[in-house]
Amino acid sequence: MEPPTSPPPPPAPPRRRAELHELLALLSYVKPWRGRFAVAMIALVVSMSFGLLFPLLVGRLMDVAIPTAAAPSLAGWHPTLNTVALLLVGTLAIQAALTFFYSYTFNFVGENAVVRVRERLYRTLVTLPMKFFGEHRVGELASRLSNDLTLLVDTLTGTIPQALRQTMMLLGGVVAIVIISPRLSLVMISTFPVLMLVAVFLGRKVRRLSREAQDRLAESATVVEETLQGIANVKAFTNEGYEVGRYRAGLHAYLETTLRGVRRR
């Protein structure tokens, strides 16, 4: 008789849904400062609106400075050179002030949120059973607590605002191009599928290399922790050179993985 076959493993949840769940869980740490976060989002939207006006004002400035018969008219608006120049300077000043405000606010919220994450993660670590600490080295856990959480700061203070900013710039730019030249907009929009496929393909590789780089960095931190904790044995057996070699190998592995990710970006 044939041995009974084991039941097939349950299907894994879709990767995209899991990532969305993780992102929402990360944003839950922003709740105590959701009011500031919302105001910063409004400032970002207004700043990008002024940013989209900048090319229009520069073009109008050139039309006024070098008048031609083919210069377009904006709803009968015929400003003077000084008027356009003042509008351009005012737009830049308002955009600079708004950019400072939302950049500072995003950093304030992100840093505070990551402090909460660090506190909760540390509380979870110290309450885990001894079996967990027997299977994981202390240096690796310390590296995860310090270095890996730094990536969360970059996500909350840089990645999310930049993603929103670039999305608004893309949508606003497409709308402006459609209004100015529909034929040119069709040419540009036709390139979007190719660019999106390339971005998704390279983005997956960059994400994988980023995780691998964090693993290499954690291994290097483990070497430091083991060496310093057992420094008496290292000195007794004159193993300084060996430990330096281990640490150097870990750093070189981290550097190589990081540079591979830089090339993909």
**Range of helix content:** over 70%
Radius of gyration over C-alpha positions, nearest whole angstrom: 27 Å
Structural class, please?
A: mainly alpha
Average pLDDT confidence is 78
List unreliable stretches of 5+ residues: 6-18
Helical stretch tally: 9
What share of residues are in beta strands?
under 5%
Order of helices and strands: HHHHHHHHH
The total count of strands amounts to: 0
Intertermini distance: 56 Å
State the shape. Answer: elongated
Largest sheet: none
Notes on the structure:
Helix 3 (81-126) runs antiparallel to helix 5. With 265 residues, the protein is mainly alpha-helical. The N and C termini lie far apart (56 Å). The chain has nine helices and no strands. The protein is elongated, with a radius of gyration of 27 Å.
List keywords for this structure.
mainly alpha
Sequence-ordered SSE layout with sheet pairings:
Layout: H1 15-27, H2 34-65, H3 81-126, H4 130-135, H5 138-180, H6 182-189, H7 192-229, H8 231-236, H9 240-264
Helix pairs in contact: 2-3, 2-5, 3-5, 5-6, 5-7, 7-9
